[in-house]
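Progress narrative, work stream C.
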Amino acid sequence: MKDVREPVQKRSIEKKKKILDAGFTLFCEKGYYKTNTTEIAKRAGISTGALYSYFKDKKQIYIAAFHNYLVNISDRLLDKLSLQQPFSLPDFVESWICCYIDLYADTSRALAQLRMMISEDIDINRHFSNYENEYFCKITELLTKNDIAQDDLFEKVYTCCILIDALRQEKSAFSHDSLDFDIFKKQVKKTVIGLLSD
């Protein structure tokens, strides 16, 4: 099989984007295993041969599509958190929680699909574990720039991310009737501030 190409012309860039958009939609609708490259090409409005000039296989499309999706959301989150001046840890944490929940509000289906594939495929697992590490590093750098510096800050950021994502899941996916979301949010916020203050 010939090498895939990285598009430089506008038309080629748009074609690659169509493939990624079509793939992402189909993967979310049908799942990884029930989606094939012929369907992706058809949804993108291109030939299967053209698809293979941009991607070597379905897995490469999957990784690129979900990577772009997460980068778009996390870049928006990090941009908002970077604007927090003057810096106040309680305000930063409140903004982190609210922005995260807002930006990931409609992502339950995509994230469920991604989690499943992370647990089933070593290449996908490795790629998104590395990406997640980059995200944790960026949050850690933001905090360090604002004089929140500890030896185990990276691990604390990881713990905070787990707590904030649990809050997001409760808001958008689970909604336990017996749980008061506002109390849960206050507890998460207090815990995150405590972790980052130690």
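Work stream C, second folded protein:
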Amino acid sequence: MRTTVFSTPLLTPLLRLIAIAILKLSGWKTVGKELEDHRFVLICAPHTSNWDFPLMLLVVLKLRLQVFWMGKESLFSFPLGALMKWLGGIPIDRSKSHNVVDETVRYYRQHKQLIVLIPPEGTRRKVKRWKTGFYHIANAAEVPIVLGFLDARKKESGIADYYHPSGELEKDMLEIRAFYAEKQGIRAENS
């Protein structure tokens, strides 16, 4: 894959130190440890605010992960498009019918290490049902799902553990959603 903020020589270690300092000064605690295996789908919820993105960047830098994330295509237009790609972004055109799942699975097959972050809600608004693309990607690519989270109530953000999809979508989604049941987003009304 391409060079991003998480893999730029000389600059990334400096940014990691800055991220650690900002998290400490702002009172946010990072939960989780550096992971050995860098081949999984990372989900993060609840996604309720534009502040989730910079917080995610700080936490990912601190945990030494090289993450690519999916975002709506409008985020990648001029003049910020190149910056968003350097920040790990992959533009998704939500207005067209195309198979993002198959495309992402193909990337996993081509790369020994790949972490793709996908917000399961698909939006910052409160939703009743999560999108299941992340699950289908992990299941088809035969990679685990890592449960990333933020909890504004506790001022904690980070990663929990690997979740291995069983292929039983409804059962697995209930188990995954149960993990997030008590987590509160930055905008609590959207959690």
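Strands lie at 29-31, 39-45, 67-72, 89-92, 114-118, 145-151, 156-163. No further action is required on this item.
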